[in-house]
Structures are given as structure tokens and as C-alpha cells.
Amino acid sequence: MVTAVTQVPWGEAPGQGPVDLWRLESPHVKVEVLTLGATLRSVLCRGRDQQWADVVLGYSDIHGYLSDKRYLGSVVGRVANRIAKGRFVLEGEEYQLDINNGPNALHGGLKGFNKALWKASAVEGGVQLSHTSPDGDQGYPGEVQVTVTYTLQGETFTAEYQARSTKTTPINLTNHSYFNLAGQAADNVYEHEVSISAECYLPVDDTSIPTGEVKPVEGTPFDLRKPILLGPRLKSVPGPGFDHNYCLCSRDEPWAERPAARVYHAASGRVLEVTTSQEGLQFYTANYLDGSIVGKDGVKYGKHSSFCLETQNWPDAVNQTSFPNCLLRPGELYRHVTRYTFTCC
To answer: Which of 100, 172, 180, 236 is the most exposed place for a label (fewest CB within 10 A)?
Structure first.
């Protein structure tokens, strides 16, 4: 099944250069990718009525992405999620990162991979984006060469991440797309059924840093092993909503692609299934969108207007020795794969 791959100019990033938009189109799914932040700008897929809908939040023009502070659709790194107090010790040396989320460092820093202008080249069925993060970038050690390869085959969109470093460094890459299977203009995700293939999750403190406990989901509102309707469940989750890491495997399990999540929207019939080689899945229900962001078609994105399925290592793993390893050493290859399959039923 042939995927059409095209490229068009899409504005300018001041001080960085021209931004391109790449389109990947199969008979079932249409995807747009920006070279700014290796951003997934849109995903169009059909519902039961055969009508297309864009199921990813985003902006109408380049200015929205340049000023974005919510990581809409972008690749985040060098380390996705939170690092406690923005501090870690590596090989006897202490590193202090910029603090950009309460007392913690979040998603790579003040100018993470989401703000980088990535180089792009066509590959079969998709586009490969590459970025060089210099030694000391946002406080992290080592020069890191990163590639993200996006491909589309039929109903499945694949993101493959690879990286190498000149020094030992923590690394944790993910895509931060916000989804709504009713369409990006829908008010909320309360009518979505969600299941996540995890026996345990990570409780967090009041700054969203894992406490270190790996807690069984059994008997808690975090038990998503069987499909649950999101609206009622959100009322029983403490705090503003889901923003928790689900443990897809234990620390020492070998690299493998595993089922991670399935989301179903009954009214449209759309289904999103996610598989990944990553150890964790951060399930986030857009708790901090507040209507101040104006997105595509002038839509104001509010609380619980979408959900994120951020496949990644466990948060703060660089400071928690019982968590899966997040260190990339010279000579090693970091590689992870996440697949998103869009169908309807």
C-alpha cells in the first residue's frame, strides 16, 4: 500500500531558518509533520460515517508553535517528563538543569527538542528528522545525535527514535501529541473509553515527581486494564485528572514492542491503539489546558479537551535507581519504537 510523501514550506523560525511541513498520506490516514520540534501537526482519519476528522490538537500557523508552552504534538527531550529539582549526579559530577515546572525540570528544559529546527529527508513511506544537541545543551552532558523517523503504512503511523552520545547522559524521548477522537474541535474527552495494559502505576508527590513506590492498579481509580469511560473515572481520580506513569514492563525486561493503550470513541467509531518498546506510558488528560490556547480553526483548548499517551521511560529515572535505566553511554544506541493505529468500528 503506497504512502504519498510531499513537502511544502511552512514559514520561518526566527534565527533558525525556514520550517517545512511534510505530508504523509495513505488511503486510511493523513498526517502532517513540521520540522520545527519534529511536530505532529495533524492526523486525519475516518469515522464510522466515512467522514474525515483531524484528531490531533495544534495551531493554524507557525506563530502558534513558536510561542507554544504546552508541547502540542512535538518531540520532547533530551529528557521527557520531570527530573526532581532539575538535578542529578552522574559519574561523580552534579548537574543542575533549568527549573521550568514548579521546583522541577520538565521535558528537556527551557529550549528543549520541541523548539529545535530539525533537518528532514524523505524515506520510504515517511520522513526522517535529525537534530544535534550540543554538549551542555540545557545543562545536559555530551553531544547527542538524534533521529526521529515517522512512517505511515495503511492505518499505522510509526515513530522510531534513535540517539547516540559522546558522553554518558540521561535520555528519554517521546511525542507529546494531544488527541481527541471526536475531532480536535470537540469540547472534552469524557465519552472516550480507555484501556491501558499495565498492572502498576507510579504514585506522585504534590509536584508530580514519583514517590519511588511502584503500586498495583488493582482496587484503585488507576486500574485501566479493562476499558473505562473517561468522564466518570476522572471524577474519582485525585487531583485535576490523570498525569501518571503506567508501568508497561519491569526494570530488567528485554527490549520488545508491547501493547500499551487502546482508546475508543463510540459516537464516531474511531479507535486508537498504541504499541511501544518503551517501559512506561504517561497518561495525561490535558489538566492544565485552560482555554487560553487558540488552536486550529480558532478552537480554544480547555481542560480535559484531549488526552496524551506519552510512551517513555519512567519519570525521574535518573534519580531513582530502582527505575529502568535511562542512561545512554558512548558507543551505545538508544532506540525505541511507538506505533499508533487508527481504525474505526
So the answer is: 236
